[in-house]
Specification:
7-stranded mixed sheet; PyrdxlP-dep_de-COase (chains A, B); aromatic-L-amino-acid decarboxylase activity (chains A, B); alpha/beta; Aspartate Aminotransferase, domain 1; globular; Aspartate Aminotransferase, domain 2; pyridoxal phosphate binding (chains A, B); 4-stranded antiparallel sheet; decarboxylase (chains A, B); 3 domains; homodimer; dopa decarboxylase, N-terminal domain; 11 strands
Chain lengths: ~475, ~475
């Protein structure tokens, strides 16, 4: 495809996306087709000779778009949002078009340097502690997801806990990782990948009211492990748990980690974006104790997946844990020690130029634009929660400090599960669920840039009337 | 950014990329600016209020493009190629625009089903064994990179080698991984991440002529470990090593793995694409013995990073190794067992709709288009190698079965390193190096779709004249 063919086809694809966005609100949020519908409609292989882009766009309309869960739909309230935006899509398009590999500084200098600066910009935007800026021994990097951030934090923590032996000898002791009962499943997954096993994860109790980690229970767990000869390696605290957006008490947890010399990783995958608003930075208290921290611009900061922003206070353990230097990657810039090679900050070797989409988003919206985005969703969540609170049939299941509201029917689990099924079957909204203190709980997560007050009010009307 | 603003800005960005491609051949392949040039030119943070896309495009021209290593440049012969193409960029643009998350079948049904079908298409295109198709107990999935493929293969292998205990108890024995001295650095990295340590990796000798793994040395290493009470868990064989594209003897290695019950992973990251041509499938002999296999369409099959295609013969160990099911991800489709949830086939939870770019590439080029692409590069490599062979000053350092030619100056390492520096300083070409049997060796890897015979001939003229 030569540049002129690309220009023509590219305009057509841009138009297809613009039309998709313009009509998104009229589509059902989810597909009702059974498993296998798409696969059954596809041929057994590609044709011998090529087909035009127009044939692909026709099949996008006929086959693909009707069988999606539309995450950007104004009625999408499921999971956590994975919102994107026009500027993000365009920044990522430039990345695809350049097709450079940022594994080493030398393999694409601007890719590395723009990423370092964007992570510094984000650190400033969120008011993160100075220690995470690239000007000292720390700095930031883009990971694909908070799962991978937790994994690399775990590996750096193991290396540190072993006194530097781990990378040679591996897991030769009973290292332990700690998180609360509300911590994300990726914490257990990271511990398993790192060779600690599920047994290596200590699940710490939470305060039953706030659902935040109980620091006394953490201290007790660490002491018990030390007494048994185990090695406490990492605590993962959460700002904004996936189930209900609970906020762990990082100041107290940080003090315990400091006392026992345990790595503290703070996972703010969803709620980190809230810190762009000064009035929501209370949620990030105590972060100066953290060895590492991450949040996902791809969740609630208008940047398309994949874009997890991950910082370390000191990159030495991370790089020591992950670096392997074969001859074919050696180069003068790396040998000089004057540059950062981000391949040593992550699991894969290769890396896309993902800083571009952040650059596009941060510049196109500006600081106030991003704050307005977060504030509008928090206000919509407040509004929805007020409706729930005012209706005797409903119970608010947890605090709602950000843009997620958790609620259930007073009539019990069966009624709540039935309600979820009923409202999702309309195709007008999509909600998911969790369990809070064992009870089936609906989650309404506001995050699509297209979601307005009218959509949230419609969702409430639909839910209230379906509740019977 | 509303759909109409996106349409206008999107056309401008497409035009910027088309113009970039049209002028690529006139740019220096690499930047000569020192570290810090880009960072120093950027402001301390985003503006309070947004800026237009035109400002971003202007800064792409002024700041970013001049400080890149241009991987798509016709004179880029470094590392392995990471070639992309118009159809790939457009498929990825659709993925960005849809902004769906394929972590579960239910979270975006078409994302999962198109991926399954595309991996079946690719398996057919490469003539892979039936056991890797989704119709049986195996199947394929897209990973970000071959590094991650090796990691998840290692985890599945550990789970199997432990008799299913690993995911509970972790690394509680001395598990061992095997690869050759020419195996990729990501194999040691995966073993380290998995908690085996560098000591857990057995580096097996190669035949000094072919640089392929010596099966007798592998057998000896496995026997020694068994005698010491260690647990052989995984062998990683390579089709097309990074240093010189050597091909390990997979039939013999597979027989040894079968005899000792060791997981066989075959890494064909670069050379897998060659198997689209029937005349190059000799390189894939013995693959019916493999438990897992991967190659990177993002290296030599016109698909932009990230797109590693990874297959397992039986997905049960992989899923058992990686699955964690929190309440908030439970859904009727997953509970039914009728669908694949790819989150359990990879490290991260979230996932982009990466099958779209494959679909666009496979359909736009067609089978014959892809074969012509690979064949033209193999022919160009043959042509370049013939020039090297015919010149007494040069030595071909290794066989060149695909599109990489390794060569050095007979005058010695210092002369060879000097030659590399000299030709790269011209900005007309970019080559990287390796060491073969300890000797400094230049690598000329052909992969850019823009590279024609004229570019390869120019590269030779430049090299030959710089050799003095």
């Amino acid at each position: 495809m030569d540049p002129e063919e690309f220009r023509r086809a590219g305009h057509a694809v841009v138009d297809w996306i613009a039309d998709y966005w313009a009509t998104l609100g009229q589509r059902p949020v989810t597909s009702q087709d059974p498993p296998g519908t798409v696969a059954a409609a596809l041929p057994a292989g590609p044709t011998a000779h090529g087909e035009p882009v127009s044939a692909l766009l026709a099949d996008l309309d006929a086959l693909v778009a009707p069988r999606l869960t539309h995450w950007q739909h104004p009625g999408f309230f499921g999971y956590f949002p994975a919102n994107t935006s026009g500027p993000s899509v365009l920044g990522d398009l430039v990345s695809s078009g350049l097709g450079v590999q940022g594994m080493l500084w030398a393999s694409a200098p601007a890719c590395t340097e723009l990423e370092t600066v964007m992570l510094d910009w984000l650190a400033g935007l969120l008011g993160l502690p100075e220690r995470f800026r690239s000007t000292g021994s720390g700095g930031g990097v883009i990971q694909d997801s908070a799962s991978s951030a937790t994994l690399v934090a775990t590996l750096a923590a193991l290396h540190r806990a072993s006194g530097g032996r781990w990378r040679e000898v591996g897991v030769d002791r009973r290292y332990r990782a700690y998180t609360s009962t509300e911590g994300h499943s990726s914490i257990e997954k990271a511990a398993r990948i790192a060779g600690l096993g599920r047994d290596g994860v200590r699940v710490v109790a939470v305060d039953p009211g706030t659902l935040a980690m109980d620091p006394d229970a953490l201290r007790t767990a660490i002491r018990a492990d030390l007494a048994a000869g185990d090695v406490p390696a990492i605590v993962v605290a959460t700002i904004g748990t996936t189930s209900t957006t609970a906020v762990d008490p990082v100041p107290q947890i940080g003090a315990i980690c400091a006392e026992y010399g345990v790595w503290l990783h703070v996972d703010a995958a969803y709620a980190g974006a809230a810190a762009v608003c000064p009035e929501l930075r209370w949620s990030h208290a105590g972060l100066e104790h953290a060895d590492s921290y991450c949040f996902d611009p791809h969740k609630w900061l208008l940047t398309g997946f994949d874009c997890d922003a991950f910082w370390v206070a000191d990159s030495a353990d991370l790089v020591a844990a992950l670096t392997v230097l074969p001859e074919f990657l050696r180069n003068a810039a790396s040998d000089s020690g004057a540059v950062v090679d981000y391949r040593d900050w992550q699991v894969p070797l290769g890396r896309r130029f993902r800083a571009l989409k952040l650059w596009f988003v941060l510049r196109w919206y500006g600081v106030e634009g991003l704050r307005a985005h977060v504030r509008s969703h928090v206000a919509l969540a407040d509004r929805f929660a007020a409706r729930v609170r005012a209706d005797d049939r409903f119970v608010l299941a947890a605090p709602h400090p950000f843009s997620l509201v958790c609620f259930r029917l007073a009539a019990g689990d069966e009624a709540s599960a039935g309600l979820l099924e009923k409202v999702n079957a309309t195709g007008r909204v999509f909600l998911t669920h969790t369990r809070v203190a064992g009870r089936f709980t609906l989650r309404l997560a506001i995050g699509s840039p297209l979601t307005t007050q009218a959509h949230v009010d419609d969702a409430w009307e639909l839910i209230a009337s379906a509740a019977g």
